[in-house]
Design a protein that fits this description.
The radius of gyration is 23 Å and the shape is elongated. The protein contains four helices and four strands, in the order H-E-E-E-H-H-H-E. Strand 2 and strand 3 form a beta hairpin. Strands 1, 2, 3 and 4 form a four-stranded antiparallel β-sheet that branches.
């Protein structure tokens, strides 16, 4: 009887694992696409760009944001410190270091508009934190891609065409 109990526990665990694996499989492998409504179509007849999805090629694969011309890199002087608030208390602090990929020779122009860029980037980071972007496994691909896209779009709106990309150089979360 003493040897039967561990065997039953092992068989129960094995059956539970197999059952969980079976039910957790994605049964539908097909991708569904959202319908484009009239409000999503611009005057030129093209649908608006998604803030989550990067631009794609003809095969539907994401394109890296690479400029045609040579680029310079500008490291922003200070790190960004973002509080993670849970139930009206600061639960953790996230420290982010950003660099900017800019048009060659545009470094001084970026340094001149750094306060405005920092303000815009902080707004994006605070919004990301308030939406729960820094909770749990905040380093997953989809969460980071959403943050990268939002930072890139905000940077391009603020700096204009001289800004090619915003690079997340370092990200650290410290629980309090």
């Amino acid at each position: 009887m003493g040897k039967l109990i561990p065997l039953l526990i092992a068989l129960t665990g094995l059956a539970g694992g197999l059952g969980t694996g079976f039910f957790m499989q994605s049964g539908d492998k097909d991708v569904t696409h959202a319908e484009v409504t009239e409000g999503d179509v611009h005057e030129d007849g093209h649908a608006g760009e998604s803030p989550v999805c990067p631009p794609t090629d003809s095969a539907g694969h994401a394109l890296p944001p690479t400029p045609d011309a040579p680029a310079d890199f500008v490291k922003l002087a200070n790190q960004f410190v973002v509080p993670v608030v849970v139930e009206n208390d600061v639960d953790a602090m996230v420290v982010v270091t950003l660099s900017l990929e800019v048009e060659q020779g545009a470094q001084q122009e970026i340094y001149n508009m750094e306060p405005k860029l920092r303000d815009a980037f902080l707004r994006v980071l605070f919004d990301h934190a308030n939406m729960g972007g820094f909770k749990g496994n905040f380093l997953n691909h989809l969460g980071l891609e959403t943050l990268r896209t939002a930072l890139r779009e905000t940077g391009k709106k603020t700096a204009g065409p001289i800004l090619y990309d915003v690079l997340i150089v370092d990200m650290v979360k410290q629980a309090l």
